[in-house]
Design the sequence.
């Protein structure tokens, strides 16, 4: 069962992704599975 280990080694150390608002370009804040823009209030849940 080394599949999971193999998968993790392939990923970079930095796991946190940064997203930017498509409307105003501000950095989005991740909140409970959603992304929120503190500037214009744009939000996306996935
Ligand atoms: Zn925005």
Sequence:
């Amino acid at each position: 069962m080394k599949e999971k280990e193999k998968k993790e080694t392939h990923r970079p150390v930095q796991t946190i992704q940064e997203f930017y608002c498509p409307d105003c370009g501000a950095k989005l804040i991740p909140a409970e599975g959603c992304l929120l823009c503190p500037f214009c209030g744009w939000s996306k849940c996935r």
User: Anything to note?
Assistant: Strands lie at 29-31, 34-36, 43-45. The chain has a mean pLDDT of 81. The domain at 16-46 is CATH 2.20.70 (Ubiquitin Ligase Nedd4; Chain: W;).
